[in-house]
Amino acid sequence: MARLPGVETPDRVVCHVDVDCFYAACERLREPDLAGEPVVVGMGYEAGEAHGAVATASYEAREYGVESAMAISEALELLPRRATADDPEDTGVYRPVDMEYYESVSEAVQAVLDAAGETVRNVSIDEAYLDLGDLAWDDAAAFGRRLKADIEAAAGVVASVGIAPNMTTAKLASDAEKPDGLVVVPPGEVRAFLDPMDVADLHGVGPVTARELRAMGLETAGDVAAADESALVDAFGERGRDVHAQARGEDDREVEPTGRSKSLSSESAFVEATDDPEEKRERVRALAAEVADRATAKGALYKTIGIKVVEPPFDVNTRARSLSGPVDDPDLLEGVALDLLSEFEETTVRKLGVRVSKLSFADRRQASLDAWEGESDGDCEGSGIRRRYRRDSGGQVDLTEFE
After folding, report:
1. Active site residue ranges
2. What pLDDT is recorded for position 376?
């Protein structure tokens, strides 16, 4: 969509969602006793070794100067707390990256986003843009509050949300009041929102660039917006042009999906944890029917069927079964899901989920409906939640990026 520089597009409503300190939030979800602790999550670290880097740090840890990409050994020296639950005399709370677990939580968030936006673009495991279509700006704040509440109910984590007329401003808005933030920037208020912002808060502006901008007399985004673009290009190349456009709130990009889904899932929490076998079976039947309907609507065949069983407070169990080939069969989906659930007949659960994966969109040839391969409990971390929003586009979570 082309437009003149400086002219806003009030018909576009873009939402940026960013889960706060995602890896640390997942660790707290698994270990509620870590609430309020300065938590460092990283990889490649062993006690007594200097290597290993911080993937993310909780806000409590950041208050002590811990930053992403910092050496874990350095981070732990900065923290006044325990390094492990078994060693309360040490410093810092360190947990190694557990991507499989984080993916399962991310999928619960993803299911909410899939239902919330007309188009969803995932940019990492914990961050996405949503095109909200014809949502009225008067309803944007209520939408944001509901979306945040649904994410927390579905996945147990807190997200910051920014809503604005374009992608760049929406991302800046989601950053503005972290953690647990919600900032709406309607058309006509973009420059008023951006102008007071420190240059260091603009995306792509690191400490060196910020110092150079200040040396040019540019302290705020408003200063950058008012500056001669050619002077910025001379100083920083094409990056200078991008920073100038960002400071002016100019961004023509459409929210485009990153690819087709790798899986489809739905999950639902009970108001109170239950051990009633029939109540659990009825919930799985409903979830299986919903997943089957979504698969049919998207023209997707599935080769793996799985369930997710969450015991209080958040002990995640997954089971999956692979078929001999891709199918689209609601009755088979329900039957396999119920069969997998039978292992948890006497288990008290707080949440259940159903998932289909190993999707095929091009090959409509189905396998024999009674040809099952062996059961596996390792490749299904299904999740999601049924919601009243609408969307019909495929998104793919990038599981390789740090926060």
Report:
1. 127
2. 34
